[in-house]
Amino acid sequence: MKTNRRTFLAGISAATALSTNRVAFGEKKYDMGATDTEIRIGHTNPYSGPASSYSTIGKLHQAYWKSVNEAGGINGRKINFISYDDGYQPPKTVEMVRKLVEEDRVLCTFNTLGTPCNTAIHKYMNQKKVPQLYVATGASKWGDPKNFPWTMGFQPDYHTEGIIYAKHMLGNVKDAKIGVLYQNDDYGKDYFNGLKDGLGKEAGRMVKVVTYEVTDPTVDSQIIQLKDSGANVFYNVSIPKFAAQAMRKAADLQWTPAQYMNNVAASVATTMKPAGFENVQGVLTAAWLKDPTDHQWDNEADMKEWRAFMGKNMPDANLSDASYVYAYCVATLMHITLKECGDVLTRENLMKQAANHRQLRLPGLLPGIAVTTSPTDYYPVQAVQLSRFKGETWELFGDVMHNEST
What we know:
With about 400 residues, the chain is of the alpha/beta class.
């Protein structure tokens, strides 16, 4: 367990404790991307394109590292955070990441977004032995230290989330007939395979499976097909733009199945409100972060910390967008990881510290959920709690479920 804890950034992470017992000071060691005065971090994000609702993540990261620098940096070093727009296009991600590694000469990349985008750079980053840390995708492939020791995930994996939904469907929907919509790439397939594995011998309950391409204008035709199939359960695996379209179209068709939506689209601001609150009552998802629209957290120290950060650094931001909580949480984890490297800012030591967290509480995590990693465990967050949409916010229910319990 961590001991000798202290606050590391006054006013920004007052609620987040971190250990100092692993920090190695003394002889300085650097790899490319680190010096006595600077740490260069690379990042790609869809500031444009069909997944641009996630641009809020990159914007918060920029504000976060700026605030860190204003407070003195990390162990006296300023963060040079270099973020490029890849438009959620894997070929563009490859181009931008090569630029980050070979021209900008970053120490690592951090929280690069999207399963297809990270898949496109996965082998390259490991061949170059450049840390690809805390990727912004829950695909199960990011937890494979044996074959990809330089890549680590962050959030709960999609496959496990799919299993949880399957078990809830079987236990709570009478004579479940399941219609599935998923994005036709590794992200969507991971969620779909989780559902299929969770259903097991009941997989025949899937009466219709349809997909969409991220370049499609709408998913209206797919929703019509699902309704016509007679499905009374809708498994919605979509990014916010399409998740909102799907639920709105279902309402237009007066199709009222039990609805399960993947967590990556669960933001009130970017999905639920655009879909129309009247159209999303009762939708279920699996949560692991505190939703900023859930008032039960208003007096919690970590959410007060987050709101204070937002008020100071991003005063015009929409505080109902859960992506800001996500980004603040993972940025805090990266901050802690870098701090614990001390003066040994090598890529190898960075991965060593990333793989050595023990029950670390981060701002925004639900009670009962913490970050734990090891050299053989590259899944930092491994628990969720089911949540149901009610009124204009999410309402948690049931117990926190860890991946081993699924």
